[in-house]
Amino acid sequence: MTPEIVPNFGSDNPDRKLAIICSKGNLDMAYPGLILANAALGEGVETMLFFTFWGFDMITKSRMNDLQFSPAGNTAMHLPGSDMHIPQAMMPAPGMTAVATKMLKKQIADLDVPEVPDFLDQIVAAGGHLWACRMSADMNKLTMSDLREDVEGIISASDFIEMTDGAQLLFI
Amino acid sequence: MPVNEIAGKQISVNEEGFLTKYDEWDEEVAKVLAKQIDIEMTDAHWKIIKFLREDFKTEGETATSRRVQTVGGVPVKEQFALFPKKPAKKMAYIAGLPKPKGCV
Question: CA of B65: which chain A residue's CA is closest?
Fold first, then answer.
């Protein structure tokens, strides 16, 4: 008989930490950080997200439901399911951003991937920590009351660096 | 394909120890699997395991944490409390199913 095989669910590095800096507020660029944070938490990795500059929209109550996607300037954008490009010159046409946003949201929903606010709910439920950037808050004249309730604080860049001592870091 | 003896039965597993044959699983097997990874099964644990088994039958793949919440009705937070650190993989293991494939 072969010996018992039991999966190793203990991590070889139980202290592993991941810090993700979310600096983009376009709908398509909001997702990489969320997906990686969620994956890391599901692997038992302590995860902290820092929202800065345009990424601040992801946690701002009045904006987080309306992130948009524009194909302008994105030369990798092609029609869904094909290799065809729409010429860049057409991208700034009126309504193009709305159409592209709607299309992307549908593709994301079809995969059962939640919208940004729901996704952050799930990340917090899984033990993730959300932090807001001090400079971004000051520039936008926003305070804690403008942000999701589960944002743990508005902190300086140096506070975040100090807090994430020893963590692996992703800048998105 | 390796074979583990679990609860007195010969059970096919993959190289990591996850069960590979849906029908070789039963609750006695699940109890042993849970014990092997230090999970004490309660009604709340069984509710999730039973959902995963049923869902796999219709979907053909293992539900992710997200789906256990939205379709199975068990919030992600509770999943982490019941199956600490790596809920999705631990739940799949005890349910005798493959690891979930989805990213979310």
Answer: A42
